[in-house]
Write a structure and sequence with these properties.
Structural class: mainly alpha
Order of helices and strands: HHHHHH
Family: Belongs to the YggT family.
Keywords: Membrane, Transmembrane, Transmembrane helix
Shape: globular
Number of domains: 1
Number of strands: 0
Organism: Idiomarina seosinensis
Largest sheet: none
Protein name: YggT family protein
Pfam families: CCB3_YggT
């Protein structure tokens, strides 16, 4: 029962955390607001972000309310897991682990977006709103790599290099 509750709580918090992080990333890369994926993300997060935005206004392109919510969700996940497993609660470890969990979730989200974009590119048959959104979300990561290592014989290695870098960072933070 305890393992089932731990799984359920972690999964629910992780899913919402990914949606909030996706909102932050979409705003940073100036993704198309009218794309169906963008509209889903905005509708899923707006009830929580709107009140927070009154306290934490935008800082340029950075949505501080969404970042604060993402960090709070990371800390909530750690707190819930500690509590469900019967350990004592301490503020500093929860804050540190919560921040690391949030960063790890961001890196994981970017990893999966790159994987999905790569797989969809094999089957692309013209314009697709989902594929367009994935392109907008990943191009800021891939373009700098392409400037250093251009496609070799039609093979774009930038996705592989960015995936390796993201995984390296996840291993480095140890979450």
């Amino acid at each position: 029962m305890n393992n089932a509750m731990t799984f359920l709580v972690a999964t629910i918090i992780d899913l919402y955390l990914i949606i909030v992080l996706l909102r932050v990333w979409m705003q940073l890369v100036k993704a198309d607001y009218y794309n169906p994926l963008s509209q889903f993300v905005v509708k899923a997060t707006q009830p929580v972000i709107a009140p927070l935005r009154k306290l934490l206004p935008m800082a340029g392109r950075l949505d501080t309310a969404s970042v604060a919510l993402a960090l709070a969700l990371g800390m909530l996940k750690i707190t819930a897991l500690i509590w469900l497993n019967g350990y004592g609660l301490a503020a500093l470890p929860i804050i540190v682990q919560g921040v690391l969990t949030t960063i790890s979730s961001l890196l994981s989200m970017l990893f999966w977006i790159l994987i999905i974009r790569a797989i969809l590119s094999w089957f692309s048959q013209g314009y697709n709103p989902m594929e367009a959104m994935l392109h907008q979300l990943t191009e800021p990561l891939l373009a700098p790599v392409r400037r250093v290592i251009p496609p070799i014989g039609g093979l774009d290695l930038s996705v592989l290099i960015v995936i390796i870098a993201l995984q390296f960072l996840r291993v480095l933070i140890g979450v």
